[in-house]
Amino acid sequence: MKSHTPPVPVPVLMLVGITAISFSSIFIKWSAAPVSIQGMYRLFFTSLLMLPFARPYTGSAARLKRSDWLLLLASGTMLALHFLLWMGSLRYTSVASSTMILALEPLFIMIGAYVWYKERTPSSALLGLGIALAGIGLIGWGDVGLSSDNLKGDLLSLGGTAAVAGHLLIGQKLAKRMPSYLYSLTVFAAAALVFAAYNLLMGIPFFDYPPREWGIFALLAVVPTVFGHVLFNWLLQFVSAATVSMNILGEPVGSSILAFLLLGERLGALQWSGGLLVIGGLAYYLYIEGRNRRSRA
Predict the structure, then answer these.
(1) Is there a domain that residue 20 lies in?
(2) Measured between alpha carbons, how far is 73 from 60 in angstroms, rounded to an integer?
(3) pTM
(4) Residue 275 maps to a domain
(5) Is the Cα dihedral 261, 267, 271, 272 positive or negative?
(6) What is the C-alpha separation between 73 and 190, in angstroms, rounded?
(7) Of 254, 255, 253, 235, residue with least CA distance to 244
(8) How many CB atoms lie within 10 A of CB 10?
(9) Do residues 289 and 125 touch, judged by C-beta distance below 8 A?
């Protein structure tokens, strides 16, 4: 149980973060650059923005053990994998389907927390996750009716969801013994380096992009990353990874509204039904988890 609280109420901070990350899929859809380039510059520019404010944390960085640096590299690798898979999914399926599948993050958090931290989930909460999984099945079934590419996008989003859960679980462990700002900066830099190595190996050009693309790279760094991921990493000091993962309940709603307004995307009845089941099931799961935490406290 956390013994301190942030200076601004958690719900307000979560709302800011949800609004920011809802723009992520829109910027990705607007870009014609390879997703690995988008991810690399998104994280590289974010690291550059954060670097001037990192001086107070040099002492903390010097005190980190070798095992901590290895965990930071692992967390950065998982974050890069998340972006590669999830951003790639938007090439094949709709914003709504991709972000609704991303909402399964608490399921992977639950599995990882049980395996790594021996945290058990009450059976009553599992009912909510079962409902959410049924919703994912409906989304996938509806997307199959559209094209096989849509199903491919759904699977990529599912893989990206598992990766970001791993990133968050590692972050929960590291946030207890290092400043969140230092954690975010080093993880983003590590993920950018992973992307750079990937692009180099795949022969993807680093610089041959028009000014419009560079503008999108900058927007991806400032809006969803700084005001989304950095904020959520900071919140790990005060709340659990499962609580931070509540942001995924709002992202599908915000992203779907923006996709309708800015991209003209529309969903069929099966996708909407599946999305409602996902959000409803996860809301129930998080409610039960929160009630049990308060009971234990």
Answers:
(1) yes
(2) 17
(3) 0.79
(4) no
(5) positive
(6) 6
(7) 235
(8) 15
(9) yes
Domain presence at residue 120: no
Angle between helices 95-102 and 66-89 (to 10 degrees): 150
Rg of the chain on CA atoms, in Å: 19
* Range name among 15-29, 43-57, 128-142, 181-195 with the lowest pLDDT average: 128-142
Interatomic CA distance for residues 187 and 204, integer angstroms = 23
DSSP state of 207: S
Per the structure, the complete domain to which residue 78 belongs is given by: 10-115+149-264
Residue 2: its pLDDT value, please?
45
Looking at the domain assignment, is residue 127 inside a domain?
A: no
Structure tokens at 296: 């234990």
Mean pLDDT of the chain: 82
Question: Tens digit of pLDDT for each residue in 109-167?
Answer: 777 777 776 666 666 667 777 777 777 677 666 655 556 677 788 889 989 999 988 88
**Do 195 and 80 meet the contact criterion of CB atoms below 8 Å apart?**
yes
**Six-digit token string for 227:** 């005001």
DSSP 114-147: HHHH-----HHHHHHHHHHHHHHHHHHHHHHTT-
Number of domains in the chain: 1
- How far is residue 293 CA from its own chain's centroid? 23
Rounded Cα–Cα distance for residues 279 and 198 (Å):
34
In sequence order, what are the residues at sequence separation of 6 or more whose Cβ sits closer than 8 angstroms to the Cβ of residue 91?
A: 35, 153
Residue 200 neighbours by CB distance under 10 Å? 10
Q: Is the pLDDT of residue 47 over 90?
A: yes
Q: Are 86 and 156 in contact (CB under 8 A)?
A: yes
